[in-house]
Amino acid sequence: MGEQPIFTTRAHVFQIDPSTKKNWVPASKQAVTVSYFYDVTRNSYRIISVDGAKVIINSTITPNMTFTKTSQKFGQWADSRANTVFGLGFSSEQQLTKFAEKFQEVKEAARLARDKSQEKTETSSNHSQASSVNGTDDEKASHVGPADTHLKSENDKLKIALTQSAANVKKWEVELQTLRESNARLTAALQESAASVEQWKRQFSLCREENDRLRNKIDELEEQCSEINREKERNTQLKQRIEELESEVREKETELNDLRKQSEIIPQLMSECEYVSEKLEAAERDNQNLEGKVRSLKTDIEESKYRQRHLKVELKSFLEVLDAKIDGLHDFRRGLSKLGADS
């Protein structure tokens, strides 16, 4: 009843996996309320979060704790008493910043409260020592007399302080019993949390198996998509081949049309060919006649050459005879010249 909320926000709560100390395990299915509480009686601060009837965070803040921002929307702190690490995921960076600033503020207040508690503990210890000393002083005072009245009054004050200290001890015992009951409740909540964690583990295992099946299905679909793509490529190649064949067919049809047009002029060409053949035959006959004439001319030429050679031989013998006669005339002339000279 002495605890009062001093700051409240909403966040997704996580705890570190106790087996691996690495992975985060969700402690809430959705964003829940996370509050700072101040206990006036104990002068202490706690972070508490409840999901339905289940306590998921019950962390007493000590001066040794540190809140660390690990990303723009996520922070964490370690609780050695709970032997775990809590993590909070916020919807915005501003909420994370406000929570971190409040953590630092509460941490400083917890440090001051610890220092005051240590001072009180030291004072109580001094009072206890003083009460034991005063007991001895009372014995002495019975022997000394009324001269030590001042010390007796101080002793009475210390007894009153001791009585108050005993009352505080009873109060602390009540608080200790309350803490034990709270710890028992927290232990039960922790057991429920452990059972919930086991359930989450089973669900996670089922999800992992489902994920593996979906991945296998995706691989099969990707393989089918690859086969479809290959089939599309083959279809594209077949279409290109069909277009090429159609182009060749069109070219062949064009050639066929040209041949048909040419076949229409074949009779005319055949008649012309017959006419040319007749002319060729006539030319061959003329050629044969000409060849006969050429052969007769060659024979005449051979005969003419033979007669020419014969005439050349005769002409040569005639020239030799003529030369002999000319030489005889020259001799005869020289003889006549000699005779004329002699007479």
From TrEMBL:
<keyword id="KW-0175">Coiled coil</keyword>
<keyword id="KW-0966">Cell projection</keyword>
<dbReference type="InterPro" id="IPR045027">
    <property type="entry name" value="Homer"/>
</dbReference>
<dbReference type="GO" id="GO:0005737">
    <property type="term" value="C:cytoplasm"/>
</dbReference>
<dbReference type="GO" id="GO:0014069">
    <property type="term" value="C:postsynaptic density"/>
</dbReference>
<keyword id="KW-1009">Hearing</keyword>
<dbReference type="GO" id="GO:0005886">
    <property type="term" value="C:plasma membrane"/>
</dbReference>
<dbReference type="GO" id="GO:0035256">
    <property type="term" value="F:G protein-coupled glutamate receptor binding"/>
</dbReference>
<dbReference type="InterPro" id="IPR000697">
    <property type="entry name" value="WH1/EVH1_dom"/>
</dbReference>
<feature type="coiled-coil region">
    <location>
        <begin position="169"/>
        <end position="307"/>
    </location>
</feature>
<keyword id="KW-0770">Synapse</keyword>
<feature type="compositionally biased region" description="Polar residues">
    <location>
        <begin position="123"/>
        <end position="135"/>
    </location>
</feature>
<keyword id="KW-0963">Cytoplasm</keyword>
<feature type="region of interest" description="Disordered">
    <location>
        <begin position="110"/>
        <end position="152"/>
    </location>
</feature>
<keyword id="KW-1003">Cell membrane</keyword>
<dbReference type="GO" id="GO:0007605">
    <property type="term" value="P:sensory perception of sound"/>
</dbReference>
<keyword id="KW-0472">Membrane</keyword>
<dbReference type="Pfam" id="PF00568">
    <property type="entry name" value="WH1"/>
</dbReference>
<dbReference type="InterPro" id="IPR044100">
    <property type="entry name" value="Homer_EVH1"/>
</dbReference>
<protein>
    <recommendedName>
        <fullName>Homer protein homolog 2</fullName>
    </recommendedName>
</protein>
<dbReference type="GO" id="GO:0032420">
    <property type="term" value="C:stereocilium"/>
</dbReference>
<feature type="compositionally biased region" description="Basic and acidic residues">
    <location>
        <begin position="110"/>
        <end position="122"/>
    </location>
</feature>
<comment type="similarity">
    <text>Belongs to the Homer family.</text>
</comment>
<dbReference type="InterPro" id="IPR011993">
    <property type="entry name" value="PH-like_dom_sf"/>
</dbReference>
<feature type="domain" description="WH1">
    <location>
        <begin position="1"/>
        <end position="110"/>
    </location>
</feature>
<dbReference type="GO" id="GO:0007216">
    <property type="term" value="P:G protein-coupled glutamate receptor signaling pathway"/>
</dbReference>
